[in-house]
Amino acid sequence: MERFLAEVERRAFRIALLATRNRDDALDLVQDAMLNLVQHYAERDAPEWPMLFHRILHNRIMDWHRRQKVRKALFGWLPRAADTDDVPDPIAEIAAPGDDAPAHWLEAGRRVEALDTALGALPARQRQAFLLRVWEGFDVAETAQVMVCSEGSVKTHYSRACAALRLALEGLWP
Amino acid sequence: MKRPNESKSDQSELEFIASVRADLNRSAAALDENTLKALSHARRHALSHRRRPRTYWKFAGGMALAGLAALAVVRVYQPAPTTAQPATGMDDMELLSSNEELDLYQDFEFYYWLAANEHADS
User: What global pTM score does this model have?
Assistant: First the structure.
């Protein structure tokens, strides 16, 4: 279990960060998902852990979005003193290359920044479907189990996400 | 059968996906030290809350084994039957392992042999 968590934690944090745009919230969501998996599903077979973990994580992310909606509805009219501070640039979480970094590193950094922006702009379900399929390597059936939806819905979310990202990132990728 | 345009489109999408995946991996590998420490702490915290496996199955299994062991002990140490029985190899082991002088048993060996032959004759 420790090996699995050590292997998945970085990607889980990035997925949560893309969803919340807040480092502390992302860390809380990842810790919560880890705790839930260990407490309730540690006795399951190891091959089940990836899907269980991501289902827990994505449920937590959806709960976070719902709380944010309620919060905005109730308190959105209150002026916020440091609005920009609550939404740090996710790219700041990535160690910045030095000034003398080779051009290709700078180019890669720009691409990651553009990718983060494009992924952050996607609707939550499209982003979920895309990241589960592309980054976690789940097939359509597995993604449907994690997202608790039909395989048809997964295909729709995924194809729409791909189309939106290709449009947003035109020129940066093939 | 796929048209050439469709194949090119598929190939282009595969390349796009591969590039996106590579950049996502790069971004995960480049997380700052503080974030990595926080993640490590979260992992250790979660693992410290791992529930111990249920012990009652172990307890039940242990009790069953103890019961079987007790039954075996009772069977082994039951009093010997009073009817005469032919000499067995175990009886010889007892004799050989005892500290008493074996001369006394030489006559017994003869009587055992006699008894065994009387049985055979009858």
Answer: 0.66
